[in-house]
């Protein structure tokens, strides 16, 4: 059996914008853009992303 599939999880570029600092209590946000090969951005049901934030000292929460 021989099978060839196209990888649909390919990006040409990933841009991530986050604030330089966040004061506690404050909001930590991220703005991202994932671009397909060819230059058009992924959007709607074609886009799925997961983000995990970790403080330099290892904290995982703001104490809430």
From TrEMBL:
Tell me which domain of life the UniProt entry assigns to the organism this sequence originates from: Bacteria
Q: What is this protein called?
A: Uncharacterized protein
Q: Which organism encodes this protein?
A: Plantactinospora soyae
User: Where is the organism placed in the taxonomic lineage, from the top?
Assistant: Bacteria, Bacillati, Actinomycetota, Actinomycetes, Micromonosporales
